[in-house]
Write a sequence for this structure.
């Protein structure tokens, strides 16, 4: 299986790539080939006299490539110009990637600039499942928030087709997942409009039984309230290593719907987020 790994060649991405446990988790997911991609601005001219941008880019990519290769991955490197999320998605389609990976630093409003840019746009337009890997400031410098990427999963579902597609990721992570929490949130607006899922507990238990058959210890939770707030509250309670959630589409009109749940979870969660887009209509 193949992953496209977006890198800005920063120390934050170095931290993620140098985490052996993170890389082992990707291996358990099934990834054995990685395409490292860095996107430069169209306004940057690497061939200008005295410019060392191109050389620094090559050295940075080679450093990360060598580390991944030392861990047993087949690695391809790509330096392209353009809009980051478009070029990353374009490469993912070109190589038929199984997973997109991007690193994100911090959760505070002052630290959401990167989340609000490349990550936000990737979340809205991803053509493959997107793993947003959280990188934080630790006592001894930068560190990954959760090295065991898929060990404890929090799966949020509204029982939609997109959520069902996200649930299929457990078949990919089953070698790495030990515990799972399945969550359904009943928003107040749905309760008032009569759209409440009356058999939510039974439906969650049916999903839980599937995971238990895989050897994954599973619990179910049904909560009332605003979806994002309850997902984040549950995250604080169960301390997952990743939140698994389905996206709602990529068209210009449907992108506006993403911010209500998926985008906010990506921006505010303390753990990693695995976002699964809906199936593409060709």
């Amino acid at each position: 299986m193949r992953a496209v790994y977006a890198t800005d060649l920063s120390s934050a991405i170095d931290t993620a790539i140098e985490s052996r446990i993170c890389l082992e988790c990707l291996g358990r997911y099934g990834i054995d080939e990685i395409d490292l991609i860095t996107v430069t601005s169209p306004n940057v001219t690497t061939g200008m006299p005295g410019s060392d941008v191109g050389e620094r880019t090559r050295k940075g990519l080679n450093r990360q490539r060598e580390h991944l290769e030392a861990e047993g991955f087949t690695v391809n490197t790509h330096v392209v110009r353009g809009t980051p999320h478009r070029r990353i998605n374009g490469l993912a389609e070109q190589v038929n990637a199984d997973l997109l990976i991007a690193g994100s630093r911090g959760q505070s409003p002052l630290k959401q600039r990167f989340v609000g840019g490349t990550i936000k746009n990737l979340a809205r337009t991803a053509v493959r499942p997107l793993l947003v890997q959280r990188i934080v400031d630790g006592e001894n410098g930068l560190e990954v928030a959760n090295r065991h990427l898929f060990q404890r999963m929090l799966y949020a579902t509204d029982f939609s087709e997109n959520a069902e597609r996200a649930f299929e990721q457990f078949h990919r992570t089953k070698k790495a997942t030990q515990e799972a929490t399945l969550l359904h949130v009943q928003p107040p607006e749905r309760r008032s409009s009569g759209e409440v899922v009356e058999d939510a507990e039974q439906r969650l238990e049916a999903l839980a039984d599937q995971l238990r058959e895989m050897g994954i210890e599973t619990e179910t939770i049904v909560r009332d309230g605003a979806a994002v707030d309850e997902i984040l509250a549950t995250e604080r309670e169960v301390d997952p290593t990743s939140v698994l959630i389905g996206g709602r589409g990529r068209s210009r009109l449907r992108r506006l719907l993403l911010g209500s749940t998926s985008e906010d979870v990506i921006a505010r969660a303390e753990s990693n987020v695995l976002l699964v887009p809906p199936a593409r209509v060709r």
